[in-house]
Amino acid sequence: GAGVSQTPSNKVTEKGKYVELRCDPISGHTALYWYRQSLGQGPEFLIYFQGTGAADDSGLPNDRFFAVRPEGSVSTLKIQRTERGDSAVYLCASSPTSRDTQYFGPGTRLTVL
Amino acid sequence: AQSVTQLDSHVSVSEGTPVLLRCNYSSSYSPSLFWYVQHPNKGLQLLLKYTSAATLVKGINGFEAEFKKSETSFHLTKPSAHMSDAAEYFCVVSDLTSGGYNKLIFGAGTRLAVHP
């Protein structure tokens, strides 16, 4: 079956611009997670959705970052006023329930010039 | 707070020789532990997971890991490396939060190179 997909695969933007990153989870998965992987490091947790609601957004670095999941399926990570330090690979994962194994998408590589 | 330390940032082996990727964890209670693999331009793939059943866990592609509570270790091994095993490997501990979901905490990763 189809896995987690993320679009775009690569995004290059200029400092100060707004970007949106999209995640399509596996069909039927209620739990969705966003992680950020900086160069040479392991992924770090950003936010967790159970259904439509953000159950834990404690990993979002600041208020420039925001994520939504309005219908409980597709999620969008939004970054305002991008900074060079936001450059990283943004990973999305989903799981059938909150306690199950997480399945990861291929990621979106964001480069802020 | 839980954490995980991968003791080697790079490991290089010859094809056909054993692989050992080392991981130590810190946890205040019985953890769930995972190994994920990341091939270039591909998503993270689960190799295996430990969830307090058998201490020796077998995963995909011939990998296995042993949970040793006394040593707080969860090292990943494979008897014979294949060229296709070259990738980045992440040891992960799960922080089962008060909200009842798995917040994954990743190590920094070990890059495995396999030489002919």
What does this structure look like?
The complex is a heterodimer of chains A (113) and B (116). Chain A is mostly beta strands and 113 residues long. Chain A has a single domain (5-100), classed as Immunoglobulin-like (Sandwich), CATH 2.60.40.10. Helices cover 0% and strands 49% of the residues of chain A. In chain A, the strands form two sheets. In chain A, strands 2, 4, 5, 6, 9, 10 and 11 form a seven-stranded mixed sheet that branches. A four-stranded antiparallel sheet of chain A has the order 1-3-8-7, with no helix packed on it. The mean pLDDT of chain A is 94. Chain B is an all-beta fold and 116 residues long. Chain B has strands spanning 3-6, 10-14, 19-21, 23-26, 32-38, 44-50, 56-58, 64-68, 73-78, 87-96, 102-106, 110-115. In chain B, strands 2, 5, 6, 10, 11 and 12 form a six-stranded mixed sheet that branches. In chain B, strands 3-9-8-7 form a four-stranded antiparallel sheet, with no helix packed on it. In chain B, strand 8 (64-68) and strand 9 (73-78) form a beta hairpin. In chain B, 34% of the residues are buried. The chains are: A mainly beta (113), B mainly beta (116). At the A-B interface, strand 4, strand 5, strand 9 and strand 10 of A face strand 6, strand 10 and strand 11 of B.
